[in-house]
Amino acid sequence: MLQTFDVFPACPRMFPVQSSKLKPRGYRVLPHVFAAHRYRSRRWSRGVVVVVVVVRPVPAAAMLKSFARAMNVAARVSNRATAARAPRAAEPLARSASCGPFTRSVWMLCHSGSHGGRPRLIPSKSLLPSASCGCGGLHTDGDKAFTEFLSDEIKEEKKIQKSKTLPKMSGGWELQLNGAEAKLIRSVSGEKVTVTFNINNSIPPNMEEEEAEQGQKAEDSEPEIVSTPNFVIEVVKQGTKNSLVFDCHFPEDEIGHSEGEEESDIFAIREVSFQPDGEADWHETSYTLNTDSLDWALYDHLMDFLADRGIDNAFADELMELSTALEHQEYIKFLEDLSSFIKCH
Amino acid sequence: MGVVLRNLQHVVPLRRARLRKNVEIVRHILGIQKFDMSIICVDNPKMQRINNIYRKKNMATDVLSFPFYEDLRPGKLPCAVHRDEYNLGDIFLGVEYVMQQCKETSCDFHGTLTVVLAHGICHLLGYRHETEEEWDEMFQRENYILSEFNKLTGSHLEPLTKRCTRQVT
């Protein structure tokens, strides 16, 4: 027997989800409430500032130019630093702190005096902090602090790592990993289904916002980071040259994050096309069906087609878990690599 | 104009195309094709939360309707003027709850979903079952919808109100 029930008094304004708000599929909806309470910010902020340090031989002319510039800077720095910095108690090597924040080319110039007959360009007692262990790399106080910081972060991240092994997908999917990219492969009755995703940039960018909303209560229980990567499904049938390819994603809702406001499917198809089987690159010449303006009935059939091949909401949830675990694993590995890079080899 | 279908749960495998087709038949029977509505499929915890928030009943249920028009006279279609007003409202379908009921009573899941949906749509159209008169009126409408549905599809569906108690909730 179905339970007795009655209708809730109509209150369209009170209730957050209305048909008018429920956008037809294809409207690009932004931050998804679904994952809203699952995000947390990393203990180590993963900012977007990218610093690339390139150490390479510099042509003589360029070196002179940069050297002249460096000299000016160094003079300013050393003047200020002399007063500001206390001398280090012990330097690992005889090379005194004369070539701190400069690139290797400047470092060589600075040192030429000690090796050859050329006079020192910067007095050895100028306070450019450095330390070297003889590995040929530059070590600074900042590097040391950075390494210590990373060591703590790695410990913390390992503490919150749920498992060192990746969760298994149910349904007999075989997992293949290639760095940040993962493939799930399954063959059923002559059909091969491959799901490919990449964990890079797979964490929604609204973590900070979430943290602000949650305020200090999150201090003890940090919200979890959830990786929601776009993923591509390829269905290959025996004896066909083309595979049917679905470009899918985890939609994010643009409206509020409070209780009951989620309104998107767990995952959605963005595009569908045929692509030559076995080719890695996406052929832009292939007709691509965009689901933005697609007939809803056709869309439902496409979703049912995927569900018949084991790709449904339950799969999407497991994919999210797998991607989250993989992302976290790679993140820890990156921190370890970073720490090794900064330390001596 | 159409039915926005959302599946927010992963407990019950859902045939979206079949669900949509059945809803379209019911819409056709009622002559409400030009009105939008949304159907959101959710699991028990979600249904329980919504039921608790809006009805103060802390339990899962099978269907909750949220009519766009609050004071619609049963059976009268809204007089919509602007495009945005061609909207009947939202129906939350407790698909997990319905599935459990179907297992207990050995009923067909998608058939039962159609019955539950017909009930929910009647609510969007102003029908209620808070008094005996309202209950009778709603039963008649559901009976009509499902008998027409049965004729078109060869099904044997019965109104939900028939199975419900007359107790006013």
From TrEMBL, chain A:
Q: Which UniProt keywords apply?
A: Acetylation, Adaptive immunity, Apoptosis, Cell membrane, Complement pathway, Cytoplasm, DNA damage, Immunity, Innate immunity, Membrane, Mitochondrion, mRNA processing, mRNA splicing, Nucleus, Phosphoprotein, Secreted, Transcription, Transcription regulation, Transit peptide
Entry keyword annotation includes Phosphoprotein: yes
Q: Which GO terms describe its cellular component?
A: extracellular region; mitochondrial matrix; nucleolus; plasma membrane
GO terms under biological process: apoptotic process; complement activation, classical pathway; cytosolic ribosome assembly; DNA damage response; innate immune response; mRNA processing; RNA splicing
The reply to whether Secreted figures as a keyword in the UniProt entry is yes
The UniProt similarity line reads: Belongs to the MAM33 family.
Gene3D superfamilies for the chain? Mitochondrial glycoprotein
Q: What coarse category fits the chief subcellular location reported for this protein?
A: membrane
Compartments reported by the entry: Cell membrane; Cytoplasm; Mitochondrion matrix; Nucleus, Nucleolus
Renumbered residue ranges of the record's region Disordered = 199-224
> Transmembrane ranges?
none
One Pfam family linked to the record: MAM33
InterPro entries according to UniProt: MAM33 (IPR003428), MAM33_sf (IPR036561)
Q: How does it sit in the membrane?
A: Peripheral membrane protein
Instruction: Write down what this protein is called.
Output: Complement component 1 Q subcomponent-binding protein, mitochondrial
From TrEMBL, chain B:
Instruction: Enumerate the transmembrane spans.
Output: none
Any single GO molecular-function term of the entry would be: metal ion binding
What is the protein name given in its UniProt record? Uncharacterized protein
Organism source for this protein? Answer: Electrophorus electricus
Family, per the entry?
Answer: Belongs to the endoribonuclease YbeY family.
Gene label = YBEY
Pfam families per UniProt: YbeY
**Keywords for this protein:** Endonuclease, Hydrolase, Metal-binding, Nuclease, Zinc
Checking SUPFAM superfamilies in the record gives:
Metalloproteases ('zincins'), catalytic domain
